[in-house]
Amino acid sequence: MPVPLAPYPTPPAPYSPPAANGAQSQLVCSGCRNLLLYPVGATSVCCAVCNAVTAVPPPGTEMAQLVCGGCHTLLMYIRGATSVQCSCCHTVNLALEANQVAHVNCGNCRMLLMYQYGARSVKCAVCNFVTSVGGSASAAEQKFNS
Q1: Which among 62, 74, 84, 101 has the fewest CB atoms less than 10 Å away?
Q2: What is the pTM of this model?
Q3: Long-range contacts from 86-89, C-beta under 8 angstroms, 24+ separation
Q4: How many other CB atoms are found less than 10 A from the CB of residue 45?
Q5: Out of the domains of life, which is the source (predicted)?
């Protein structure tokens, strides 16, 4: 008489993130400053590089990013903040909203420059040229001598 074979065990269900359609968000690791991706709905994220656990901001909190002027580290902050202190070099960075800044091409090298509304000129970090952006049209660009 044949012996019936035992049925194969059912494989475990694959992991599915809590958000529908696998939506993800991102934040900067509080330890090593790497950009972390995490499923929407998570309350904290453990970094695979340095094992630091970073708390996820509450749902509905709008985040913004800027690059630190001191050490060029990517910083994330709650949108609406007026300044952000870098946790690496402690530089206090001015956090401007998109409607508070304007753009102009450098009068010398044509690099796209960003400046705060109300500024009269902006100095290019590439060639040190100072481009006039406010005031009268006769205030032409001047070379910065340093």
Answers
A1: 62
A2: 0.45
A3: 87/30, 87/33, 88/33
A4: 20
A5: Eukaryota
CB within 8 A of 93, min separation 6: which ones? 66, 68, 69, 70, 75, 83, 84, 85, 86
Give residue-wise pLDDT tens across range 104-143: 899 999 998 888 777 889 999 899 999 998 743 333 333 3
Buried b (16+ CB within 10 A) or exposed e, 3-32: eeeeeeeeeeeeeeeeeeeeeebebbbeee
State the Cα–Cα distance between residues 129 and 31, nearest whole angstrom: 38
Radius of gyration of the chain (CA): 25
Residue 32 and residue 48 in contact, taking contact as beta carbons nearer than 8 Å: no
44: pLDDT strictly greater than 90? yes
